[in-house]
Amino acid sequence: MSTSFGNFPPAQGICVLRGLKKENDGQDNPLTNDVNLAIAQDGIPYDGLGCGYGDGIVDNERAV
Q1: Distance between CA atoms of 64 and 49, rounded to whole angstroms?
Q2: What is the pTM of this model?
Q3: Closest CA to 50 of 38, 36, 62
């Protein structure tokens, strides 16, 4: 172990609370129970797999 920092070496981390923002595609990707439609339109088939899907706001989706 390096002694240049003494007894308290620096720490670094990241905490993602709402998920990473998906790339903009110009549409409100759907939250639907139809798995095939969700895949075709880059949406999600189950609530809890992301946020911002099917809420009427374009390009605010976040993936979990």
Answers
A1: 6
A2: 0.70
A3: 62
> 14-47, pLDDT tens digit by residue?
887 888 899 999 999 999 999 999 999 999 999 8
Domain boundaries, the chain: 13-64
- Quick one: 29 exposed, middle or buried, by C-beta within 10 A (0-12, 13-18, 19+)? buried
How far apart CA 43 and CA 35 sit, in angstroms, is 9
How many Cβ atoms from other residues are within 10 Å of residue 43's Cβ?
Answer: 21
C-alpha span between 59 and 21 (Å, rounded): 9
* Local structure of residue 24 (DSSP, 8 states): P
Identify the H or E element spanning 63: strand 62-63
